[in-house]
Amino acid sequence: MGTKRNFELRVKDPCQLYLVMQRRRKSKGKEQQLPSAIEEDSPQAKHWKVSVAADPVMWLVGSAVLGVYSQTIYPSIAGGDSGELVAESCHLGVSHPPGYPLFNMLNYLVVNMPGAQTKAWKANLFSAGTNCMWTPLIWTYAISAEVFALNNLFAAWLLFLLLSYAQSGSVYYANLGAFVCGLAMCNQHTIVLFEIPIVLYVLWTQRRSLGMKTLSTYALYFVVGLLPLAVAFMYTFYLIVFHALSNMPLTEGLLYGVHMRFWQQPNIILFVWGGVGLDAVLQRAWRTSGAAAAGLGVVLSVAAMVGQGMTWQHVGNQSHAWFIPNYAKALLDPLPPHALVFVNYDLQWTAMRYLQRCEGFRPDLTVLNLSMMTYKWFATKHALYPSIVFPGDRLVPASTNARDFHMKKLGAATYLLDEAIKSSRPNITWLAECARPLEHSLRHEPRQFWSDSLLKNLGLAYAYIVRSPDEFAPTDADPLEPHVGHHVPDQTKYKDRATDRMLQVWREWIALPSARADPGYDAIADIVRKFTPTT
């Protein structure tokens, strides 16, 4: 009766259920001599430790994956935040919030190691060394210097410690887990969503013996792990579930990719328990059908892993991707000595910063990020640029529709459109120039990247061209894109072509459900109805 009660208590612990059943199963077979066959009630079982340090299979798999990664990593910086993260690692600087102090400290050691490779390549190899999967999502972030690869390592480490604690009940794993929880928080803040259930589980298993001494010990280890973050106390903390709160539209490719990055930790949980299930299947095959069946299962598992790698190799192989550093060099190289450079795009800013900070390329140039100059704290940074006289504390951009989140690289066009409309007599040449980049975006970007503002503003540009009392000179070059009003018989009647295009894009705009909330919807819909022939 007592044995049955003990077993029932054990199976209520989900992390121990698999381990207990595995030991019971093995203790009936030929594997009595293995550590996993030790009776669960014996003193040895309480201190049984999981170890991968001497596991040849783990070393073989890890080496194989790292070998593939090392041949597919970026030779220099990738896009996104990679350039900035490596740049700040080169001089122990501060990355964008929350700062990523642990990543910068570790990569500071890595990028300064001897070797002919670029500093970015060394940082990319560090990311590759922290991952071990051939799935396209994991692979993408394992071959470039990004915080997500290190975050995956912490997630896997915490799962390993959780299983070790569930297996042995040793306070050693609980203390080490508390330290790793704190250390992981110094790298990527979203790991807290991974840590909360683990902490609650450990505290629940010790609920009957938990006291202030134990809690204080766990807190101490956690704080020690947080020390890199404590040193960088000025780093801000993002909202934990910021994507859920921001409710960004996943129909846009870029935003969908941003969300995908945070699927990696849930995938790790799935893969770990998938491995546990696979082990159980192979153990059963060994007992019921012999070594041949188990061997076939192993072969199929290896084949699946190799097939996964071959399937996604075209996505993961970025070993020849030099376009980002080459692009930045092409921007900086022709500039005159000691030039002042203003940039307003992350790809330009991060790539230029890496070249200057890590490779010493064009250190004479002063590069300023216009986006950063809009914040109030920029007033405290004026002293860093003694040769520059700033007209104010910070940059205040013009208030136009181009600041709308959904507009893409159309700031100048929308600003000119706004200024032209404000004038008492809009300049039709300006209006035509405004329409060109809007047309380019509409024709060459996928439909999911279109926005309400893009369609409305393009129609607005043509509307003011039509309303203007001025005319384009017949001798001038065609001010409109070739496709605008292409079926109008006389292509020199530019206002007829502008009218045709205005009605075309505004018809698409009023068909959008979200357009009805716009204050100008009724007026534009009325114009379209008046000029649209009835059938």
TrEMBL record:
This is DUF2723 domain-containing protein. The keyword Metal-binding does not apply. The lineage of its organism: Eukaryota, Sar, Stramenopiles, Oomycota, Saprolegniomycetes. Keywords: Membrane, Transmembrane, Transmembrane helix. Pfam families: TMEM260-like. InterPro entries: GT117_domain-containing (IPR052724), TMEM260-like (IPR021280). The chain crosses the membrane at residues 147-166, 172-203, 215-242, 262-282, 289-310. Coiled coil: none annotated.
